[in-house]
Amino acid sequence: MKDRIKKLQKEKDVAILAHYYVDGEVQEIANYVGDSFYLAKTATKLKNKIIIMAGVYFMGESIKILNPEKTVHMVDVYADCPMAHMITIRKIKEMREKYDDLAVVCYINSTAEIKAYCDVCITSSNAVKIVSKLKEKNIFIVPDGNLASYIAKQVKNKNIILNEGYCCVHNLVHLENVIKLKNEYPNAKVLAHPECKEEILNLADYIGSTSGIIEEVLKGGDEFIIVTERGIQHKIYEKAPNKKLYFADTLICKSMKKNTLEKIEKILLEGGDELEVDDEIAKKALIPLERMLELAG
Ligand code: 13P
Ligand code: SF4
């Protein structure tokens, strides 16, 4: 099936993009694999008119907003990130009324409707850099409260206002499991995604995006305690099969696992539903996304 997909992808001049959390076999047939910032940025440089996104809905939606002339297919339109919905427009409006000198910063893990009410987007790989560059004193970060409290620790001269959203996968990590692994493997560096709770991040030697974590492993060292979704191990073992990885908990993002080879082959053969974003919303949501690309450099 992998060979058939690769042949069809070439014949039809389709670009397949995949996130590091999708199954390894899907990452293997993708033309581009990366973290959410890399995927958004890469899509703006592609010549292909058709893009298939193996990831979660906000990723395809961001690609469509940045490239309205392209046809974008989600491998599975029901692969949604629950955190993307953990903020309301009403709450954003309330904050804008409450604070004068305010920037509303949305994690890319948010809906297009929410992006349309925000000033700038961030991803875990550029969040600290972008928030540091903003001129406003008060920064409301939505929807992820854990990422926001991580940014607050790094950017001390801003008043970071937290929202109560969270990733239901990273929030599951148990502190005692990380401590147990640290005791068992005292030489292993702890690498964690900033969507983890503060108590977990306090134990980390490195905090970063999925690409950041992979780069950190490949840089050097033999053993690592990894605190993020399991899918990340595929790329690491592909590049460095001898590394020893210990996972604190079995973190699986069910939405990411909805991306399968069968569904990709079906889209290549029959076409599929095109991802559409309302014109007005897309126009407004484009502003924070483009600002992210500009500020992230
Ligand atoms: P990255 O930007 O680090 O790839 O994270 C995306 C995500 O959804 C993590 O849960
Ligand atoms: Fe959303 Fe969490 Fe899945 Fe990432 S791992 S897509 S934040 S539910």
What does this structure look like?
The structure is a single chain. The chain is α/β, with parallel strands linked by helices. Helices cover 42% and strands 17% of the residues. The strands form three sheets. The chain has a four-stranded parallel beta sheet, with helices on both faces. The protein has a four-stranded parallel beta sheet with strand order 6-5-7-8. A four-stranded parallel beta sheet has the order 10-9-11-12, with helices on both faces. Helix 4 links the parallel strand 3 and strand 4. Helix 1 runs parallel beside helix 13 and helix 3 packs parallel to helix 4. The protein is globular. The termini are far apart. The mean pLDDT is 97. The site of 1,3-dihydroxyacetonephosphate has 12 residues, from helix 3.
Briefly say what this structure is.
The protein is an alpha/beta fold and 297 residues long.
List keywords for this structure.
four-stranded parallel β-sheet, globular, binds 1,3-dihydroxyacetonephosphate, binds iron/sulfur cluster, 12 strands, alpha/beta, 14 helices, 17% strand, 297 residues
> Bound small molecules, which ones?
1,3-dihydroxyacetonephosphate, iron/sulfur cluster
Looking across the biggest beta sheet, what order are the strands in? 2-1-3-4
Helix content: 40-55%
- What structural category do the secondary elements indicate? alpha/beta
Inertia-based shape: globular
In total, the number of strands is 12
Distance between the termini: 38 Å
In terms of DSSP E residues, the strand content is 15-25%
Count of alpha and pi helical runs: 14
Order of helices and strands: HEHEHEHEHEHEHEHEHEHEHEHEHH
